[in-house]
Amino acid sequence: MKVFVKELRYTSRRQVEVIDITSDVESAVNESGVKNGIVLVFAPHATAAIILNEDESGLLKDIEDKILELFPRRGNYRHNLIDDNANSHLASAFLGQGKVIPLVNGSLIRGTWQNILLVELDGPRASRRVVVEVIGE
Q1: How much is the pLDDT for 120?
Q2: Whole-number Å distance between alpha carbons of 80 and 136
Q3: Which of 25, 53, 82, 121 is least crowded, fewest Cβ atoms below 10 Å from its Cβ?
């Protein structure tokens, strides 16, 4: 069994932003040489998330708007007494920081409209990391 790890970096421009990272993850998988196994895509941040969904501009805006609606910046959060970003932590906890995707015959198994998306929840940020770990043979 082989294990390959690659770290990707992204810059965000807005407080809440959805960034399509599919092609970068696919490139990392190709670089790994692994043909069959699993791919972990993980954002090592408490205020970012990884989701799978369609990369369509209207839907991406809908996702961003829904996050802000469900987790408003100016909520009555205890964490805001320490750091004014409790909404970002809550959204990340509910969305999740990682996804595991099957890898079969060198291809990520995704639905027709499933792209891999990094969700910035506390931006803008100069640097966000995403770890891609490919495990298999």
Answers
A1: 98
A2: 42
A3: 82
